[in-house]
Amino acid sequence: MADLTFVPRPHGLAMPFIVLGKLIRPHGLRGELLLHRYNEASPVWRRGSELAVFAAEPDAASAQGDVVDGDPSRHVVIDRLRPAPKGRTLVVLRGVDSREAAEALCGLHVAVPVEALAPPEDDEIYFHEVPGWAVETEAGDRVGSVVAVIQVTQDLLEVRPEGGGETFYLPLVADVVKRIDRPGRRIVIDPLEGLLP
Rounded to two decimals, what is the model's pTM? Predict the structure, then answer.
């Protein structure tokens, strides 16, 4: 697999980026950083991948799966990754070779352009793409629309009911989600008993 690299657009043309992780704190004296990866299975996490760095402000890049439009503060390239205790990851970035250089990156988010992501399979979704999609039953009844995807112990769709009111949650599992209709921007479900408000 080739290294993931991208060419920034000319200044003034915003490129959407998807936030994939956060640089937490320095580790040791040689520039290594503790990294929180929002999706550990992503092919981005390998040597040679280029990442855009954004400030960790609520209106910029605040949580996993956020899409950010704008110019990153800088670009970094992964040189090395290794596991850390408690399921965490340590990363070495090219050119970041001291604790001071690592400290300058602490608390910042790393992202890649949305267009650099591989197309999802027919039965897959990217979390950033589904807000606003319709949620319908297999019988064609509209239940509501997707507000967000929430990652807790299980991935959940947050859905706003068709008639308004408080949002509710549907598990992203095969027993519930029966079809992803990307062209139609809808998710078809089998509403198991007790799932709908």
Answer: 0.65
